[in-house]
Amino acid sequence: MKVAILGYGNIGSGVAVVLHDNRELIKKRTGVDVELKYVLDLREFEGDPIREKLVHDIDTIVNDPEVDIVCETMGGVEPAYSFSKAAIQKGKSVCTSNKELVAAKGPELLRLAKENNCNYFFEASVGGGIPIIRTICESLRGEEITSIKGILNGTTNYILTKMEQEGADFDTVLRRAQELGYAEKNPAADVEGHDACRKIAILSSLMTGKTVHFEEIRTEGITQVTGLDFAYAKALGRSIKLLAMSKRTDEGVFAMVAPFMIPAEHPLHGVNDVFNAVYVHGTMLDDSMYYGRGAGKLPTASAVVGDVVQAVLATGRHIDCDWSEESLTLLSGAKIRHRFFVRFTGSEDGDLVKKYGADNVIRIPEDNGGFALVTRELSEQEFAALSKESTNMVSAIRLED
Ligand code: HSE
Fold first, then answer.
1. How much is the pLDDT for 50?
2. 36 and 162: one domain?
3. Is 155 exposed, middle or buried (0-12, 13-18, 19+ CB in 10 A)?
4. Is the domain of 122 the same as that of 139?
5. Number of structural domains the chain divides into
6. Of 199, 210, 241, 297, which residue is the catalytic one?
7. Does ligand 1 lie within 6 Å of residue 182's CB atom?
8. Do 161 and 286 belong to one domain?
9. 341 touches 360 (CB < 8 A)
10. What pTM did the predictor assign?
11. Ligand 1 center to 132 CA (angstroms)
12. Which of 28, 249, 272, 381 could form a cystine bridge with 334, CB 3.0-4.6 A?
């Protein structure tokens, strides 16, 4: 069977490596010889052996009946959407790492794949090399999932880990993450939480079977997290992680992405560097957790090739996935309750302890111009109202227990 790769960047070139290096193994396990026929890219790659497979026109791939499977590793919604759609409409299965496209158009492409008796697989779109999509869609299909919490962005987890362990500054670590091939083309997508937001939108959709629109998910990134926050976190026996979460409540489904202070006993506490973890709770299953490299060329390419193998095995057959185009309206989040870690400037704590229902004021030597406290459990709405009145408030981070 012949495969084409759309986009020869970090992940696309990784897919070429995995298809080449594991070709015999894939043949042994599937009985099918899977061969890379085309690579689509605008660039020329002078001197690179990949040049002989290079094409610049999607029609060459879409109109070649020999091509059965297309790996879309371009990123971004367009032209990836049009190219994926064109391939699916010709009955070619598409395997993608593109969470932006899956979050924006996933259910439509799944429907088209069903109509054309082929597949749209997106294992690599969430959690890099962690096989979480197939786990939810297949292994947990008989389970009612009630919450998903995860560290879903490798770049920000790498940055937060290095800030905590090495006291490194934000920009230096971000550059290192970019050099290691973890970051998005525009790193704002990582550090502002947008990438994790797309990923939890996908997981929330799979949890509910409806479409959770990423635009509705309250999203905060890590750009406001400082070394001083880590000093306080250490004093509290906690770490700071960018968490993406989605929970069923009695009133509906709530989802959010934000930095959280988590205690040392929390299962996600020890998830460091580029690693991701997804912590899934089901009514029968109870807790389960999935861990692995959340970004990087070969781990992500491994997930794409896992989908290629699945597509080979499912030739002529559509594998259904419970994700409809019907929209799910998320809870606004105003009533969701957390405790908050809050920093203030100055030395006077006045009536702040009482106002925020804190046990005491926290002072550490690293913060000689201020202090902090941990509030009682407050709704987002209550906290927003209280913080408006506190002119000496510097920042706040939610607590997860
Ligand atoms: N930039 C993403 C991350 C890549 O750091 O997690 C994997 O989706």
1. 96
2. no
3. buried
4. no
5. 3
6. 199
7. yes
8. yes
9. no
10. 0.97
11. 15
12. 381
